[in-house]
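User: tokens in, sequence out, please.
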């Protein structure tokens, strides 16, 4: 699996962001249940876990997927935004810890 190499590649950008914003929790984007069954894993959750361990940041899974979306690959900016509109929500009134 490419999770560790991808986390290593992404870590410098995360460090730059943390230098500006300070420590923040990482919130992985949930995958639709059908895609999770097909893939067998949620790459966003795995990547967030690796980055969180490396940076000492909490990972909070507070988002829920409300509906399936088409793949983002090949879509322009406006189409991507339209594709994601209403697809996610914060679970049961939870708040992102600060």
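Assistant: Sequence out:
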């Amino acid at each position: 699996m490419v999770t560790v190499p991808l986390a290593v590649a992404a870590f410098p950008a995360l460090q730059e962001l943390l230098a500006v914003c300070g420590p923040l929790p990482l919130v992985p984007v949930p995958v639709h249940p059908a895609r999770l069954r097909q893939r067998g894993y949620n790459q966003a959750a795995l990547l967030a876990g690796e980055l969180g361990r490396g940076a000492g940041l909490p990972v909070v899974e507070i988002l829920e997927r409300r509906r399936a979306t088409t793949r983002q690959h090949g879509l322009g900016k406006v189409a991507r935004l339209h594709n994601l509109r209403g697809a996610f929500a914060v679970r049961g009134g939870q708040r992102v810890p600060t």
